[in-house]
Write a structure and sequence with these properties.
By secondary structure, this protein is α+β, with helices and mostly antiparallel strands. It has 3 domains: 9-89 and 297-376, Phosphorylase Kinase, domain 1 (2-Layer Sandwich), CATH 3.30.200.20; 92-285, Transferase(Phosphotransferase) domain 1 (Transferase(Phosphotransferase), domain 1); 423-427 and 438-542, Immunoglobulin-like. Helices cover 26% and strands 22% of the residues. It is built from 12 helices and 21 strands. The strands form 5 sheets. Strands 1-2-3-5-4-11-12 form a 7-stranded antiparallel sheet. Strands 13, 16, 17, 18, 20 and 21 form a 6-stranded mixed sheet that branches. A 3-stranded antiparallel sheet has the order 6-8-9. Helix 2 (48-63) packs antiparallel against helix 11, helix 4 (106-125) packs antiparallel against helix 6 and helix 4 (106-125) packs across helix 10. The two termini are 25 Å apart. The model is unreliable at 291-327 and 329-437 (pLDDT under 50).
Amino acid sequence: MDTWAVPGYTESLELGAGASGRVVLAVHEETGVPVAVKYLSESLRTRPGFVHEFRAEARLLGGLESPYVAGLYEYVESPDGAAIVMELVDGVSLRTLLTRAAPFDAEAALVVLKGSLLGLADAHRLGVVHRDYKPENVLVKPDGSSRLVDFGIAVDVGASAGAAGTPSYMAPEQWTGAPASPAADVYAATATFFECLTSHRPYSGDNLAELALQHVDAPIPVDEVPEAVRELVRRGLAKDPVERPGHAEEFVMELEAAAGAAYGPDWEERGRGRLAALVALLPLLLPSARSAPRTTTDTARTVLSRQPGPGRVQPWLPGRAGMLVSAAAVILGVLLSYGLQHGPGAAPQQAAQALATISAPPAVDSAEPTAPAASASALSSPSPTATPSPTLSASGTATAGTGEPSASATTAPAGETTTPGEPTTEATPTTASPTASAPSAPAVKDVAVTGFRQTGSTTATATIGITTDGTGPFSVTVSWFTSDTGRGLGTADGASQTFARSGATQYTLTVDHAFQNQGCYWAVRVTTTPASADGGASQQLLTRQCEIR
């Protein structure tokens, strides 16, 4: 059970939960500002690969300043937990509205699509692909506007991060693990738009294999949507990403042209009004209507909001807030992995109490922008020095849904042989010398599972990348796991495999495995000796033979 709480905040209730974590409603004690706190689950916090991804999400949010995306206040990590403190979006998830009021009329569906597409557009300008656009990750506010949340599996454009997402909304190229592109987000947004118009998803296979084939080969069901928006659906759901709008901003322009031609200049106002009416029917589901602690600041009625930046988000490199958060998140991993445990003269109890915090506070409305703080200190809790209008990230999981990462593979080093469970060494002729000394083991800087995919009914392959700061010898250990729930790595499957490497600073390994145990989820974990600065890496996938439930 998760018991750790971010210092300096008073929590009131849970807003959402999933296998990867939970989101709670909280109030910043010094200012009375309501926030959403996203905690990494206890089971994943002990696994360095998931912590690395959680830090990456915070780093991304720190550089993404958009009125259409829930923003970052601070990232907090300690030996007892990790959390992202975000804006609290006072809204209802699109999934909730669809459950109660679908199908929407075309104008309301277009408004939802436009608002969240604008959030995608700001991310795409930074070179970021969301990869998990779906109704659960779109929040509709009481004024009918929408906000995009949960960048838990987002990656850089062009990254080969493997197949990931929620199957019912995944573009054809996502199923094959092709490099990430904004066109995949456009596809997922269009699939959600289709669901708003029809109350069902474009494709509904009984299992993953059937669903994948439908996304790749089945005709686009454009006849089910109003004629005025059929071309939008046809373009957005095109099988070939080249035939789709290349990024969200281009799709917004096409949407506005189609909506204006079909429904007149007031279509957006009418659509937003209808969405506002739907949200008004569900007042008790809004975070603002749920029991939250009251403070003296609540009665001051001070209006606080994010200071608007100078125009749109600029291409990466991010702004000062993002730069500080990006740099501090990298430093954070080193501090926690080395400084807190191995610092000279540090007492064990001091290390156990250390708390690293990265913050990127927004500026008070009508005041000069303030530079965000980025610090790693003991028992400190930097917090929003100013606060925005209430906003919320209602997703409790970084990889919600049934889609789990898998990926592509590369070629294994020639001549490599291994015996599961036994260290593999590479014999190198040596000459004894009174003055010669063996090269020291290098520091392992980074470990990544860049490819993990199922190759048969019981077999899988994983591609592993490792970076060191020297050419000395080190070893890599690969372990395999199976699980029925997808929560945690699961049960060890067979013996681990260990490989010895030396002579370079960049390494790529491809490792195959035949699974012995039954389980819908397979996982791989990679560790090194000496230990990597990021603690290692892991990845999990949902096997093709398991049905979607």
